[in-house]
Amino acid sequence: MATGVIDRLRAWFGGAPPAPRDAQPRLHSVQCANPKGLHHMAYAEWGDPVNPRVLVCVHGLTRVGRDFDFLAQQLARHYRVVCPDVVGRGRSDWLPDAANYGVPQYVGDMVTLIARLGVEEVHWFGTSMGGLVGMALAALPQSPISRMVLNDVGPVVTSVSLRRIAEYVGKAPKFASLDEADRYIRTVSAPFGPLTDAQWRHLTVHSTRPVADGGFEMGYDPDIAKPMQAMLFLGDIELWNLYEAIRCPTLCVRGAESDLLTRDTLAQMAARGPKARTLEIAGVGHAPMFMDTAQTAPIEQFLTEGFAA
Fold first, then answer.
1. Least confident of 46-55, 88-97, 222-231, 275-284
2. Start-to-end C-alpha separation, the chain
3. How far is CA 108 from CA 37, 58, 104, 112, 139, in A?
4. Whole-number Å distance between alpha carbons of 208 and 219
5. CB within 8 Å of 81: residues ≥ 6 apart
6. Strand bridging mode 80-84 / 37-46
7. Which of 119, 84, 100 is nearest to 38 (CA)?
């Protein structure tokens, strides 16, 4: 789909979200294993809890599952939508050893989550880190992922984007108020593109937490930065071996101003491995947030292809 589709959809729908089906998600957690013990991974769930069609939405490095509230409400008429807080973020526990913050641990946790959900296959929507986790899981033999959206991530992660992200991950100050936290998040997350004040406040409320002596802090373990710091000297990270092992239908979305997923990589993704369909969203960097109908409509179309009317 061409970039212009987004503009036409925005004109048709007016960018205004319809009334939500559910005002709030159901909040749960599942116990997972790590090399030094056990931890709980929290998740939010939308839609019919017995719907056998499950969509798992996994967020980026410092974000949380509640980033997907709007997308989940739009897709809950088709799916049971499950949005985990990856370990070390949001309502989930922190790991005892920072060295385990990485894709292998996250894949293991997602396999445990899918087993808890009681289904044999899922569709997957992964933003940035969540897309890397999806790629790793989809590349495995007998993978439960049968259809996947990769949001502004692919088999090449640029060193430029890693250095930019490393400038703020694990280094956030304490905030005296939510307004102060909101201003900080708008600054470090400016590549998300033009969001409304209400959308920025939603992201702020769900990605921060109060501290005992007053004020707020970011809702993630600062130690998630440690494994990333160790990768900075490696240059671009290439994962084509994973991507070329993927067999499920795949859509890759790129923010037109992204510094993480280049146009060249996107073009190669259309020709290699699962031969992903591609979509570019104008006016956005890393990464599109899918908080308006114009962005979610093509995702809904791709994911629900083949569903019975």
1. 222-231
2. 23
3. 14, 14, 6, 6, 14
4. 4
5. 45, 46, 47, 54, 55, 57, 68, 71, 72, 75
6. antiparallel
7. 100
Place of tokens 């600054």: 187
Three-state SS for 211-277 is CCCCCEEECECHHHHHHHHHHHHHCCEECHHHHCCCCCCEEEEEECCCCCCCHHHHHHHHHCCCCCE
CB 266 within 8 A of CB 239: no
pTM of the model: 0.92
List of residues 6+ apart from 12 with CB closer than 8 A: none
Residues recorded for the chain: 309
Cβ pair 149, 126 in contact under 8 A: yes
Q: Could you give phi then psi for residue 155, rounded to 5 degrees?
A: -80, 0
What is the structure's pLDDT at 22?
62
**Would you call 10 exposed, middle or buried from its count of C-beta atoms within 10 A (0-12, 13-18, 19+)?**
middle
Answer for the pair 153, 162: CB distance below 8 angstroms, yes or no.
no
Q: Are 243 and 156 in contact (CB under 8 A)?
A: no
Burial of residue 262, with CB atoms counted within 10 A of its CB: 0-12 exposed, 13-18 middle, 19 or more buried: middle
- Contacts for 206 with CB less than 8 Å, ≥ 6 apart: 64, 66, 67, 69, 90, 219
What does the alpha-carbon distance between residue 262 and residue 255 come to, in Å, rounded to a whole number?
9
Residue environment code for 78-107, b if the CB has 16+ CB neighbours within 10 A, otherwise e: bbbbbbbbbbbbbbbbebeebebbbbebbb
Residues 165 and 196: their CA atoms lie apart, in Å, by 23
- Convert the pLDDT of each residue in 140-169 to its tens digit: 999 999 999 999 999 999 999 999 998 889
* Tens-digit pLDDT profile for residues 257-288: 999 999 999 999 999 999 999 999 999 999 99
Q: Which residues contact 201 (CB under 8 A, 6 or more apart)?
A: 178, 182
The tokens 């992660």 sit on which residue? Answer: 157
